[in-house]
Design a protein that fits this description.
homodimer, mainly alpha, Na+/H+ antiporter like fold, 22 helices
């Protein structure tokens, strides 16, 4: 046990300095996170007295685990239910914030003559606010339960999702050097498909498994199971070329639907705190104070741009979606900083070797400055609103007031909620089932090369191998195909009912209605078949075999129709149960 | 973030298998620890289908952190107060167990023709029972609150301390190839000195610092501070050539005196569980099932030896220290297994490259078997006692009964508890203060080479450097030297009072008493000076300078006498306060 002294020394240095500096920062009433970063700078290679860390690579690896635990905790706090509640406002505000900030960042980077990739990454770095800092600041100020705080949390959730999409897009752009619209759509489509399917399958499987383990009453087994799922899912995600951050966030969101959410949060908190401390210290380790002096001017400009840009974009977005001026101002002031996500994006740039070395310290410096200002900005929101409304000309104020009223009147008058709601719901269900079918065929195609090798022991002809794989995918997706057919049929019936009125169709009314409700599903299923064939191109058997497979499938379907309906229904019920179950206090 | 996939994969494999197998083992009502080991065997390199771990070295390093957290938790549960309560019985039982088991192990190893070092390590491996397994088994059987369980926990605490001494001794033997009595005494003396001083200084400093941090109410900062102290102290211990296990145990025992013990235990539990899971999995990774078949015969013999040997040694030790037959049998049956400490000793042998490769798997196999038997043995204790007492001849039973009575009568009649108690207490205080003085001089000698370099900037002559260092040590140890002098004086007074009776000394009584109480301390201080001179050989200045330093010191002492007395008193009060403070619930 005498080897690995260097590792113990590194951990001792990191933890001891982190503890001492954060306690000092706490006395100075500054956020803990800044203390970690400062500790990292002190023990880092760029500051005297000397290099205290032996094996920076090991510490970086542990820091990456810190990112994983941070994103996992974010996921645990994410809740589909909460998202549905604040919905519209959060989406409008987050979208306008991200679009504007990416643009501002890109323009500033270009104005300073930085490379296109640096400018693009700067935009991404500025886009997303820091959940950690905001939660800390709001609870310090005692504002966590206010209405605007709920809105801010909604915005942060949407930002997290969009941020993850951004990570995926940036990786794509960095690897291909460009962003074609088609590629972006395909990339985001694949991401959406992956997220939907993982959430669905995950929520069906993981909370049940954890409930089973939790019933033993052993915290140890529950923790190890949670970690097993977490690392396992992250591994799957990494193998599919997405980031660990995405995997950790998704599996966290899946576990957020477990009944034992609070126990899991308790067990994970120490691991998250320990490893995220290491992560924030590694940020300080990478920070070269000399670079900060060289880039003092850009840092000042960017800091100002973050504060004003976020206030305007997010505040205006909130206001445009129908909130009053005071709430909008408070929301805008609260999100006026960048944090952990920015570090993740900045280190992505470094890892992919597409950004310059100065971008990382600049991002850290801007984050530190904006973090320092956050509590003061939040407190300044109300006075600023009052001063603005006093200074505003009366006609202006009237127009703003009328806009709010019009928006609210619009919302109550958005007629026929029943038909509209029903249609939306059926379409959503069809989309979800189609996503599952697509995922099954894509998954089988993905695994085809290795499955083919296995099959080669019994089947020589490649065409036969394909036929077997394709049939397997077809059988597995049968319950979902049946569901798609049935939902399409009820949608067609509903639409026929509404659109074909006796007044115009006369005595053919019911005939036409029946024709529509029979025809539409069949046409749709042909479309579904074409879609599936396109997705599973690499394992689609030749025409002859394909027809044989389809005929067999049709026979099987006739036999198993009722079983398919039943299994789909029970899955749907299980999903709904998991969703509607409240977490134990 | 796309590098380090191998590391994530390793963690995913370890955690997922650990979770699955332990849940299965829990269903089969077997201990979790066995599940971890089984998971390790499955994913290990010796079993099909294939090697699942990429970078065994990284996983081993994390496993070492698991040992650290395990020993740290043991330390947190260790309590000087609890130890004082069960005192005598625990010490007698643990000592007889360890001595007998080391001897049995050594004899078995020699009988199988193994090398001397293998036989010795086997003895050490068999010596110490598994706290984890025992706590688990007793709480499963609902016996944790019984009186014999308290005794068992006391025995385990003593075993932990003796086990750590054994680790140190084994390291010494392995490095020098032999055990000379003198070396053993010096090694154990140094260990005792180091433990006493760290406990004293640690209990004065660490709980106070943690209380300060805990008052912020932030679990995150408390955790990081705990980890900072833990890793920092382990680093110090490793630099002094002791093991991380010792360091973690000691710092745990120090923190056990903190008022926030329960909060600390809560925060550390997930880290301990996660990393110790990795540790136990790495034990399985190292296990080659083929070796187990080759060594089936020794494994069977050793398993039987562990069960019978521990039952006899520990049970008899308990009985001889005055417990009744039923309690003794229960204690003996409970400790009849080996566990985590055995793995630590076995891996020490591997690390030091003095034991053969087969010893580790043999130790694991014996641990697995004895762990499996533990719950059945505990339950068999009472029936066995009854059968034995029925089968025992009446005269035998009478002798046993009389032994117990005689022991109990002895205890109440062990006259003059006041004088005896007072003497013992003063001697203890003198010993503690002497230990501190010795530690100060040893510490300064240890740091002399680097301090000398620093001093060389101002002082060229080596003799002067020594004089400065020696004076510094003398000044720092002054309060403790004064305390030694004063305690010796009061001891001498006390003894003079008792031994010199007016009946024999007549009218010289008070004169002789005064002479003794003045003479003894002065003679003792000369002895202390010789001791210090011997310990600080490398920094002892030449005679001329030494006399000068001593004269200066005497002058300083005359000036600062009262201050020395005061500072020592306040340290003593602070220590007592920390001890007497109860942990928050």
């Amino acid at each position: 046990m005498h080897h690995g002294i260097g590792f113990i020394q590194d951990l001792a240095v990191v933890m001891a300095f982190a503890a001492a500096v954060t306690v000092l920062f706490h006395r100075l009433k500054q956020p803990v996170v800044l203390g970690y970063i400062a500790a990292g700078v002190i023990i880092g290679p760029y500051t005297p007295p000397f290099q205290l860390i032996h094996d920076e690579q090991s510490i970086q690896t542990l820091g990456e685990l810190g990112v994983m635990f941070l994103m996992f905790s974010l996921g645990l706090e994410f809740s589909l239910r909460k998202l549905f509640k604040v919905g519209a406002t959060a989406i409008v505000a987050a979208l306008s914030e991200i679009v504007l900030m990416v643009w501002i960042g890109y323009e500033i980077g270009s104005a300073f003559g930085w490379s296109q990739m640096d400018a693009l990454f700067l935009g991404a770095i500025l886009a997303i606010s820091s959940t950690t800092i905001i939660v800390k600041a709001l609870s310090d100020l005692g504002l966590k339960r206010e209405r605007f705080a709920q809105l801010v949390f909604g915005i942060l959730i949407v930002e997290d999702i969009l941020g993850i999409a951004m990570l995926v897009l940036l990786t794509g752009i960095a690897q291909t050097g460009q962003l074609s619209a088609g590629l972006a759509v395909i990339t985001l489509g694949k991401l959406l498909l992956f997220m939907t399917v993982s959430l669905l399958v995950g929520i069906l499987v993981v909370p049940r498994a954890l409930n089973y383990v939790a019933r033993t009453g052993s915290d140890e087994m529950l923790l190890v199971s949670v970690l097993g799922f977490c690392f396992g899912f992250c591994l799957l995600v990494v193998k599919l070329d997405y980031s660990i951050a995405l995997g950790a966030f998704l599996i966290g969101a899946i576990m957020a639907e477990s009944r034992h959410l609070h126990r899991i949060e308790h067990l994970i908190a120490p691991l998250r705190d320990a490893f995220s401390a290491i992560f924030f210290v590694t940020i300080g380790l990478l920070l070269n104070p000399a670079v900060l002096l060289d880039y003092a001017w850009p840092i000042a400009v960017i800091t100002l741009a973050v504060i004003i840009g976020k206030l305007v974009s997010c505040g205006l977005g909130t206001f445009l979606s129908g909130q009053d001026a005071r709430t909008s101002m408070r929301v805008g002031m609260t999100v006026s900083q960048i944090g952990e996500f920015s570090f993740i994006i900045a280190s992505l740039g470094l890892t992919l070797k597409v950004t310059s070395a100065f971008l990382y310290p600049v991002a850290v410096a801007v984050s530190v400055l904006t973090t320092l200002f956050t509590p003061y900005l939040i407190r300044a929101a109300d006075p600023l609103t009052r001063r603005l409304s006093n200074a505003m000309p009366a006609t202006f104020a009237n127009v703003f007031g009328m806009y709010g009223q019009w928006l609210r009147s619009l919302r109550t008058a958005s007629g026929e909620p029943t038909l509209f709601g029903m249609t939306r719901r059926i379409i959503l269900q069809i989309a979800v089932n189609l996503a599952l079918v697509a995922a099954i065929f894509l998954g089988v195609s993905y695994g085809a090369p290795s499955a083919g090798k296995l099959l080669a022991q019994w089947l020589n002809a490649e065409a036969m191998q394909r036929a077997v794989l394709w049939s397997a995918a077809l059988i597995v997706s049968m319950p979902f195909l049946v569901a798609v057919y049935r939902k399409t049929k009820s949608l067609a019936l509903l639409l026929a009912e509404v659109s074909v009125q006796p007044a115009t169709a006369g005595r053919f009314t019911s005939a036409i209605r029946y024709a529509i409700s029979d025809l539409v599903p069949i046409v749709s299923m042909v479309g579904v078949f074409l879609l599936v064939a396109a997705l599973s191109g690499s394992i689609l058997p030749p025409t002859g075999l394909l027809i044989a497979v389809l005929v067999c499938a049709a026979l099987l379907l006739a036999l198993l129709w009722r079983w398919c309906v039943k299994i789909h229904a029970s899955m749907q019920i299980a999903l709904r149960e998991t969703f509607e179950e409240q977490a134990d206090p």
